[in-house]
Design brief:
By secondary structure, the protein is an alpha/beta fold. 40% of the residues lie in helices and 21% in strands.
């Protein structure tokens, strides 16, 4: 695995094409809203062959962040602003933001995501790091911990995800995997569509109260309009969905969870439509050192609704 000596200020970064520059501008505005000034780095992995962008803020113990759908660096801004004393390394998942895609149809999903994260740690010069994942990104730290336990410190899972067989693909995910999905991912993104998606994810109250700012919506529009993220996500979804269920390589059975001995915290908002409190209590109970923290009224991305509460709980947990 190799890392390019390519660390830059976001404001100084130059784009390869006008679309990516428009996207970068939307990112800069959102980072500015949170009062954060990140640097970025591109790293190249050999197996699988992929170029990844990592955005960095802070110093201290390293924490690698893996986003869910519609997530890149500033998606985490409200949370990482609350995490003092940590080196926050926010990965653009393959195919998202400014990272190149991986053809997931060629690989067993659990194996390849563990190898991507292991390669990222190698390229970043990190023997070990805490790892946080949101939504489908929660699969990644658990797979890394199962395959390479010495590389992971503590694990944070934010929001429900396709971690256990009880979780079925939402209707939109099944639609995305269907032939109609090819049309959907080419539709122009609009602010109203993004707000509707956020409301469906349980964030309506925060939108109405202004806790999710307009610049967050503008950034999400730019992500869909000026990158190929959604087209790449459809390719991944088609490799993961079989009929009305996720393929087994994505989810964990009880024996697999029981074998992961790392301290693991799940932060789950009670308005999250992915799973239920009972499902996540059972899943965290299957982990030898799992614990569940509930955020009353929060949605699928709980730090957007309650950044101070979630940031404090995550910070305390990572500090051990």
């Amino acid at each position: 695995m190799t890392a390019r000596d390519n660390v830059t200020d976001m404001d100084a970064a130059t784009a390869a094409d006008p679309r990516s520059e428009r996207y970068r501008q939307a990112e800069r505005v959102l980072w500015g809203h949170y009062g954060l000034e990140p640097t970025e780095r591109f790293i190249d992995l050999d197996s699988p062959r992929v170029r990844l962008r990592v955005v960095e803020i802070g110093s201290g113990e390293p924490v690698l962040f893996v986003p869910g759908t519609a997530g890149t660096g500033p998606y985490w801004g409200a949370l990482v602003r609350e995490l003092k004393g940590f080196r926050c390394l926010m990965l653009d998942r393959p195919g998202w933001g400014l990272s190149s895609p991986v053809d997931y149809a060629k690989y067993e999903y659990g194996t390849v995501v563990a190898e991507v994260l292991r390669g990222a740690l190698d390229a970043l010069g990190l023997e070990r790091a805490h790892v946080a994942g949101a939504s489908i990104g929660g699969v990644w730290p658990l797979r890394l911990a199962a395959a390479h336990p010495s590389r992971v410190g503590r694990i944070v899972l934010l929001g429900g995800g396709p971690l256990v067989p009880e979780i079925l693909p939402p209707a939109f995910v099944r639609l995305l995997a269907s032939p109609l999905g090819a049309i959907i991912v080419r539709l122009p993104q609009r602010p109203g569509m993004v707000r509707s998606i956020l409301r469906q994810g349980g964030h309506g109250a925060s939108l109405d109260a202004g806790r999710i700012p307009d610049v967050f919506v503008d950034w999400r529009v730019a992500l869909g309009r000026d990158t190929d993220s959604m087209r790449n996500e459809r390719d991944m979804v088609r490799a993961l969905v079989s009929g009305r269920a996720f393929r087994p390589a994505l989810t964990f059975d009880d024996a697999e969870l029981a074998a992961i001995g790392h301290p693991t915290l799940m932060v789950y908002g009670t308005a999250d439509q992915v799973g239920t409190v009972d499902i996540w209590r059972r899943a965290m109970g299957a982990l030898p050192r799992g614990e569940l923290h509930l955020v009353d009224g929060a949605g699928h991305l709980p730090w957007l609704d309650e950044p101070i509460q979630v940031g404090s709980r995550v910070s305390d947990f990572l500090s051990g």
